[in-house]
Write a structure and sequence with these properties.
heterodimer; A: alpha+beta; Heat Shock Protein 90; 5-stranded mixed sheet; 13 strands; 17% strand; B: alpha/beta; Rossmann fold; 2 domains
Chain lengths: 479, 241
């Protein structure tokens, strides 16, 4: 498409054309109305003057006879800028007046007429135009009184010129303005198009140009930029995840392969083969768990798991998880306790249970005994009397339900807390503890799914992780 | 002291007729072979239409149906069968392992749901439990294994003459194990049926619960009843048989 073709196709240019037509019509009708009204006014004025002069002259004729009339006509005809007068005999011969010629037949019909005429004293051959009225006098005489229409024609000419010029100016200014606005818009749109093409080509860091006028195009550009920001963040996240997946799945896969290879090369008897195969199965089970956790996170983050939201009691979930993990904690020499008040949640019970289970598993994995305060009850029946090593809590706070797990482990330094929630991040560099590094990520994704968040805080001295879930649920929030 | 036997060595007392509907040739062959090795009879259908036709005509104890199949998907097979009054227990195999998919599968009339990849031991254990359920309701009020006795109404557990005190959850764990006495019960089956959780714990929580239960019912006894089946799960049975 040519540049001109592009220009006249712009919305701005088309709008300009429509407005141009409207303005031209408006100007034409305004001037037309003005011209018509003026003409009517002038005609009325002439008619009034002619009528009154005719009646005056008729009176003269009645009072002073033909001589009186002729005297009056001659007197009037001599005034500067005089009207037209003509008195004729019944035979049509001029008796008095200032008209030398008329269109034929004008004097024969009494009443109004428009006619070309010549004045007596005029030397030019040009014909003038006048509005006249002919009246029959007694005795067969006729009298004509009229007025030149030059004034009316001149006025009409002025209006017509004004109309021509105004339409011309409207068109020129309109077209020029249209081209200017269209080109301006077109330039901005072209710039945006160029940017989007570069973005589509893969450069996600590009941003659309935003002007300073704050008009609709700027607002659109700002919104598109915000959208690009979000997309870029998601893409970066995706890339990080795929890098991490590549790393954290490839490592165990390599280990798996190495062990199989080693067994093939070295194992001598059935027992050794069996042991190698069992390790292989364990390793692949670990891989499957990691994979499932990743899928679960992806699912929670994409919001698909919102289908199975029900109303349930957070305290019941806390007690359930406590009951499930209490023996495991005891095995590790830790006390696990629960303190929960009834607090209803609208959410996915399974996912929230799993998130809480992950937090408890972490606490058991990294937790340490709280130390033994004086008067420790050796039977363990007085658990409330001493600090439990790990405490599960559930209670309502304002519009939120808080589910938290507090341990006495090493905790997480404040600077690392944000990072700890990210996928695959395991702060313990040596990775001596088993785990996929997805526990906190999953808990965080579950919290986000419910419109809440995951908070990491100092448990003094351990770590306190809190799942914050809005009790009314995410659906009511978004509606 | 704890006797261990591996999954492959378990000889089942009763033979089952199984139908495997699975479009992946290799997986299907593996399953047919593996089920035959443990003494069951397994037929195979490779698409949904064939699977439905076989399921309708054959007398099967359990159907093992892949969720995604050519011609007709797994859920639709089960739906059609149930619509016609055929209530052969069906286990759904699916690559979609999430909670929501499981619920969808069970709502469509499936009796159990196993996400891929699965271990054969897990599948076998679940299929045997399904078959037993089909064979007739084991709703007796008292379960007995050897000299261990569990009264489901009074919640009393006795080993010989000695009464054993169990926590409520331990009671439910033992009840589930005894209901399926002589069958392998996997850790996930226990987590699903005793605790009603469908996630996969990263730690050996179930083992700890089992060892607590074991110390209550088997400690100091010559004949242990609660056995660990390596690579599969647990089984409660009278050691002699």
């Amino acid at each position: 498409m040519t540049a001109f073709g592009k220009l006249i196709r712009t919305t701005a240019f088309r709008l300009t054309l429509v407005y141009l037509l409207l303005f031209a019509l408006f100007a034409a009708s305004l001037l037309g109305y003005f011209a018509w009204n003026t003409r009517r006014m002038i005609t009325e004025q002439i008619t009034d003057t002619v009528n009154s002069e005719l009646s005056e002259l008729s009176e003269q004729y009645t009072k002073g006879g033909l001589r009186g009339l002729v005297a009056a006509v001659e007197g009037r005809a001599l005034r500067p800028g005089a009207n037209l007068y003509l008195v004729t005999t019944p035979q049509g011969q001029g008796v008095a007046g200032n008209v030398s010629s008329l269109e034929p037949g004008v004097m024969d019909h009494p009443g109004w007429a428009e006619t070309f005429y010549k004045r007596l004293e005029e030397t030019d051959t040009k014909n003038h135009y006048a509005l006249v009225k002919v009246s029959q006098l007694s005795g067969g005489f006729r009298i004509l009184v009229g007025r030149d229409l030059e004034e009316r024609r001149r006025l009409f000419g002025i209006v017509a010129k004004a109309a021509q010029w105004s339409v011309l100016i409207v068109v020129v200014l309109g077209l020029g303005g249209g081209v200017f606005v269209a080109r301006r818009v077109l330039r901005r749109i072209d710039a945006m198009t160029g940017t989007t093409q570069r973005i589509m080509a893969g450069d996600l860091s590009e941003r659309l140009p935003v002007g300073r006028s704050g008009d609709e195009i700027d607002r659109l550009a700002e919104n598109l930029n915000a959208m690009l920001e979000r997309i870029e963040a998601l893409m970066v996240g995706l890339k990080e995840v795929s890098d991490n997946i590549a790393h954290d799945l490839k490592t165990p896969l390599t280990r798996l392969r190495n062990r199989a290879e080693e067994a093939l090369a070295k194992a001598g008897n059935e027992g050794e083969y069996r042991a190698a195969l069992e390790r292989t199965i364990d390793e692949s089970d670990g891989l499957i768990r990691t994979f499932n956790a990743l899928l679960m996170i992806a699912r929670a983050e994409s919001g698909q798991a919102r289908d199975n939201m029900i109303v349930f009691d957070a305290a019941e979930v806390a007690h359930g998880i406590h009951e499930l993990y209490e023996p495991l904690a005891e095995d590790k020499g830790l006390t696990l306790d629960v303190a929960a008040d009834a607090a209803t949640i609208h959410g996915n019970r399974e996912l929230i249970s799993q998130a809480l289970a992950n937090l408890v598993e972490n606490a058991i994995k990294y937790g340490q005994p709280a130390g033994a305060p004086a008067g420790k009850d050796p039977v363990g029946s007085g658990a409330a009397a001493r600090n439990p090593d790990i405490l599960i809590e559930a209670h309502r706070e304002g519009d939120n339900v808080l589910l938290s797990v507090t341990d006495h482990g090493p905790g997480i330094p404040e600077a690392d807390r944000q990072r700890a929630v990210e996928r695959f991040v395991r702060l313990e560099a040596s990775r001596t503890q088993p785990g996929s590094g997805l526990g906190l990520s999953l808990a965080s994704a579950v919290a986000t799914l419910h419109g809440g968040d995951l908070r990491l805080a100092d448990g003094q001295p351990g770590l306190r992780v809190t799942l914050v879930i809005p009790s009314r649920g995410v659906e009511q929030k978004t509606v | 002291m704890v006797t261990q036997s591996s999954a492959a060595q378990i000889q089942t007392e009763s033979q089952m007729r199984l139908l495997i509907v699975e479009d992946d040739r290799e997986s299907a062959d593996y399953l047919v072979k593996a089920f035959r090795e443990v003494g069951h009879v397994a037929d195979h259908a490779s698409d949904g239409e064939e699977g439905l036709a076989l399921a309708e005509s054959g007398e099967y104890d359990v159907l093992v149906i892949d969720r995604m199949l050519p011609k007709r998907d797994g859920l639709s097979i089960i739906g059609t069968l149930r619509g016609k009054g055929n209530h052969t227990p069906a286990l759904i195999l699916s690559a979609l392992g999430q909670v929501d998919d499981r619920i969808k599968g069970l709502r469509a009339g499936g009796d159990d749901y196993l996400p891929k990849p699965y271990s054969f031991a897990e599948l076998l254990a679940r299929v045997e439990v399904l078959s037993r359920r089909h064979g007739g309701p084991s709703e007796e009020t008292t379960y007995r294994v050897g000299d261990l006795e569990l009264d489901r109404l009074s919640h009393q557990v006795k080993r010989g003459a000695a009464e054993i005190t169990l926590q409520p959850r331990e009671f439910r764990l033992l009840e589930y194990l005894m209901k399926h006495a002589g069958q392998v019960v996997t850790r996930t089956m226990l987590l699903e049926n005793v605790w009603d959780y469908h996630f996969d714990p990263q730690t050996n929580v179930i083992d700890v619960h089992i060892s607590r239960l074991r110390s209550k019912i088997d400690k100091g006894q010559d004949k242990p009843l609660l056995h660990t089946i390596r690579g599969a799960g647990y089984m409660i049975r009278d050691g002699i048989r």
